[in-house]
Amino acid sequence: MGNKYVWGIKEIQDMLMQVLMTDADISRKEMKASINEIISQYLQYYLKNDRDIVYLDFNIRKNDTYYKVVGNNILTALWLSGLFPADTKVVLEKNEYVIDKIKFTYNTKTKILKSEIIKNGKN
Questions:
Q1: CB 75, CB 90: distance < 8 Å
Q2: One digit per residue, pLDDT tens: the chain, 123 residues?
Q3: Where are the alpha helices (DSSP H) in the chain?
Q4: Are 78 and 113 in contact (CB under 8 A)?
Q5: Which of 15, 18, 20, 28 has its CA 20 to 30 A from that of 8?
Q6: CA angle 77-78-81, nearest 5°?
Q7: So where are the chain's domains?
Q8: Rounded distance, CA 61 to CA 50, Å?
């Protein structure tokens, strides 16, 4: 049984869902350029420095039942999750981002963004 998609929480995911609803195969090479352009235009409204768009780097994988959009660096993974750090340089250097007592770290080998709750100022 699948999960119900909830609109309006993560705008980049909403955009991808709208494209998928047109029966487009977003994993096709030709679609990546279009999706990259759409996400870049969206990010211009949220990024403190729009030159940071150069860090937008992702892959889209498809199997029989779903698509998986994978950020190839911590910034892209955060952006795809709806988080927009102000100091991108520090985030890239430390490969982590802390907001509201939650620490996000990115594994460059597995390309997984992990979050953990910071308890009592530790972690």
A1: no
A2: 567 777 777 788 888 888 888 888 888 888 888 899 989 988 988 888 889 999 999 999 888 888 888 999 999 999 999 899 999 999 999 999 999 999 999 999 999 999 999 987 555
A3: 11-20, 29-43, 74-80, 88-94
A4: yes
A5: 28
A6: 90
A7: 11-117
A8: 27
